[in-house]
Amino acid sequence: MPLSSAEITQNLQTRFGHDILLSETGHNYLPTFTCNRQIIADLLGYLKQHPVLQFNFLTDLCGVHYPQNEPDREFCVVYHLHSWINNIRIKLKVFCAKTDCKVPSATAVFPAANWMERETFDFFGIEFEGHPNLKRILNVDEMDFFPMRKEYPLEEQTRTDKNDKMFGRHNS
Amino acid sequence: MPRIFADNDPQSLHTTLNLGPTHPATHGIFQNVLQMDGERIISSEQTIGYIHRAFEKLAEYRPYYQITPLTDRLNYCSAPINNMGWHMTVEKLLGIETPKRVDYIRVIIMELARIADHLICNSILGVDTGALTGFLYCMEEREKIYDIWEEICGSRLTTNIGRIGGMERDFNERAMLKLKKFLADFPQNFKEFERLLNRNRIFMDRTIGVGDYSAQFAMDWGFTGPCLRAAGVDYDVRVMEPYASYQDFEFDIPIGTNGDTYDRYMVRNEEIWQSLRIIHQALEKLPPGPYHADVPKYFLPPKDEVYHNMEALIYHFKIVMGEIDMPAAELYFAVEGGNGELGFYVISDGGRTPYRLHFRRPCFVSYQAYPELVKGQLLSDAIVTMSSFNVIAGELDA
Fold this sequence. Notes:
The complex is a heterodimer of chains A (172) and B (398).
Chain A: H1 5-16, E1 21-23, E2 32-34, H2 40-49, E3 57-65, E4 75-83, E5 88-96, E6 102-104, H3 113-124, E7 127-129
Parallel strand pairs in A: 2-5, 6-7
Antiparallel strand pairs in A: 1-2, 3-4, 4-5
Chain B: E1 14-19, E2 31-37, E3 40-47, H1 55-59, H2 68-72, H3 79-94, H4 100-128, H5 132-153, H6 173-197, H7 201-207, H8 215-220, H9 226-229, H10 237-240, H11 261-285, H12 303-308, H13 310-320, E4 329-336, E5 341-348, E6 356-360, H14 362-367, H15 370-374, H16 379-389, H17 393-397
Antiparallel strand pairs in B: 1-2, 2-3, 4-5, 5-6
């Protein structure tokens, strides 16, 4: 009998209170939990150690930038967890502000988070507190900006030899 | 452990060795700075990113169908798996159901890609232990797989094979012939390769007990694919979350016990046999029917219709110019790549390009454990360990 997202929600809310919200379930969506960033490391540890849930595997960790969001929810870190015993995946999300871009590191729970967090730091500038070696990984060390943030366009904006007006390359 | 001196200290017993970025033994462009005590490795630090091409940023400015060629360049030893993974992600986003024939054709192509990927990894492992002959045998077989792809999609390494909603064309007569010839010839040629290495005393001495780890270590460090299965965990995305009708086929998941280089080698070898099994079943059961789903909005119409039919012309133009909006959604989709779970995490805000796309690259996740594995090992063992991890620089750096 597979676990339903309602059961997982109830389980998490009894342990962590109502800081954890379930969102986005249904077709194509994984059960997604949004939580306060302070508790993320505890939450990951709890999910990993839990005798029934057993979210033993950190599949993926990445950052997202939402410049349109309210200032304290501008950056998002997404964790994909997979329970191999129950064969369910869930997604955890934490948000932080641009001025206070810090999230506790998950490396103590999942060593695999090491490079994923470095990559997220490299591209979004999100600092993972408690990370053993937080420095750039794919970009050069001298780089002084975080290229995956939305304010950095793909191509150099000073070029005049390209007119993209008709076939637009931009999202808008 | 003796005290570690700075390198320029005359008392220093240790040397710093730069393995890479361009070294034949790294099989790609990435660097390892090794701290050596004689031949033994004390510590190592990896530098990666030499071929970082900003695919995730690029993808935010490209319509969905133009992202397929980017995925080619992730794990370029098995590009079709990446392509298919991306097509299936977009199909899931759009809610497209593909016909059975499409699934089976995809399975055949993906399993050929897995064979090509494992062939390269295992034969190069042979080269690193001093056996060049097997490598040459394998390259010949891989060439035949590339010939099949060439017949289907026109290219060999970076294939851009398939389309969103199906395949760009059906198998033609020649592709079928080449595939059947490959299936007939390959087993005995591959057995020859196995005979060269599997029970070879030198090869076994070089690989057994080298770079080993426990199942718990593998799970904690995010290993997937053959590297995980070598430690005895039977996790395979094809079985856990079947895609492209994998549930229709009968195959086994080979596992090892010690997670050492020999186990990784044997798991890959056995996976090649299992892939062959799947291809045979798929060919046997290959259902007739269309080679793409009926989704004119996303699948290019035939060329002659474009010239004579107004709707076809409109769709052709809209698809090629990337003018079609996608539904707003957020999804994760994974396929079993040559190296493990290859995931695509897409956030679509309803526009024509993804708002954010993240590739879960199996190499990137597993390679980070390398310093842990080679600590205390001999340099020659470290080379063999790296080789059997099948680290592909394209996938590492995205």
